[in-house]
Write a structure and sequence with these properties.
Elements lengths: L3 E8 L2 H14 L5 E5 L6 H11 L15 E4 L5 E5 L6 H6 L2 H5 L4 E5 L13 E7 L5 E8 L4 H7 L8
Parallel strand pairs: 2-5, 2-6, 4-5
Antiparallel strand pairs: 1-7, 3-4, 6-7
The structure holds adenosine-5'-diphosphate and magnesium ion.
Adenosine-5'-diphosphate (ADP) binds next to helix 1 and helix 2.
Length: 163
C-alpha cells in the first residue's frame, strides 16, 4: 500500500490562494501532474497562475483554457494547462490525446480533473477546492507518497496547514 499524504489550508483571499499555489509550484518538477477539483469559481485557474508564476511564467499569460482545452506555455519548465470542462469525459479526452499530454516533459495542470479520473497517473497530486465564503476557500492537497510532498509541506508551513 502506498502511503497517502494530505494537507489542508484555509484561504481567506485570492492572494492566499496564489501564495499556496506558488509554494506548490516551487516544489514541482518536470513530469508532475496536478489534478484540480472544485466548482466553477472555486479558484482552480487562479491557482494555476500561482503555480505558473513559480515556474517563471507571468501570471497574465495564464488564462482559463475552458474553450481551447489545452494551453502550452514554454518556460524553464514547460507548463501544460488543461481544462476538461467542455469534454464529455475520459473517452473523449483519450481521443484527443490526453494520455500523451499527461505524460509530457513539463508540469501538467488539469482543471475539472475528476471528469477524466481514469486517465490520471497514480502519482498525481490532487488539489480540491471548496467554496466556504465569498472570499474563503478550503484547499486540500492529497498525494501518494510523493517525493515532492515533503518539500511542499516545508514550503507551505507558513500558511499554517490544519491537517
Ligand atoms: P475556477 O477556475 O475554479 O472556475 P477561477 O480561479 O477562475 O475559478 O475564479 C475564482 C474566483 O474567485 C476569482 O474571481 C477570485 O478572485 C475569486 N476568489 C475570491 N476569494 C478567493 C480565494 N480565497 N481563493 C481563490 N479565488 C478566490
Ligand atoms: Mg477555471
Amino acid at each position: 500500500m502506498c502511503d497517502k499524504r494530505h494537507l489542508s489550508f484555509s484561504s481567506e483571499s485570492p492572494e492566499d490562494t496564489l501564495a499556496i499555489a506558488r509554494a506548490l509550484g516551487e516544489a514541482l518538477r518536470p513530469g508532475d501532474v496536478v489534478a484540480l477539483v472544485g466548482d466553477l469559481g472555486a479558484g482552480k485557474t487562479l491557482f494555476c497562475k500561482g503555480v505558473g508564476e513559480a515556474l517563471g511564467i507571468p501570471p497574465g499569460r495564464i488564462v482559463s483554457p475552458t474553450f481551447t482545452i489545452v494551453t502550452e506555455h514554454a518556460g524553464p519548465v514547460p507548463l501544460t494547462h488543461i481544462d476538461v470542462y467542455r469534454l464529455s469525459g475520459a473517452r473523449e479526452a483519450d481521443e484527443i490525446g490526453m494520455r500523451e499530454l499527461l505524460s509530457g516533459d513539463g508540469v501538467c495542470l488539469v482543471e475539472w480533473a475528476e471528469k477524466i479520473a481514469e486517465l490520471l497517473p497514480m502519482d498525481c497530486i490532487q488539489v480540491t477546492f471548496t467554496i466556504s465564503g465569498d472570499d474563503r476557500r478550503e484547499i486540500a492537497i492529497d498525494a501518494q507518497d510523493h517525493p515532492r510532498f515533503d518539500d511542499f509541506r516545508a514550503r507551505s508551513q507558513r500558511f499554517q496547514p490544519r491537517g
